[in-house]
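User: For my dataset I need records formatted as: sequence, then structure tokens, nothing else. Please produce one.
Assistant:
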Amino acid sequence: MKFKITMKDPDGFADSINRAAQESVESVNGVNDEEKSDLVNGRSEELKEAVKKWFEYEEYLRVEIDTEAGTIRVCEVEK
């Protein structure tokens, strides 16, 4: 049997994107806090763009579960 589940978590999306962006610039040397903040903001936008095909409105994620195959897949946003 196959079925889809839609999950909504706007805070989880934003928090995870921001955390990943912060972690990616932590090791950057030779920049002040303001420059790091700018880097985090830029990286956050890059990450949002990279994952937008799976997240609708930056909060909805749809997965399809196949109980017979024992699999789950993330569905792309339907346009």
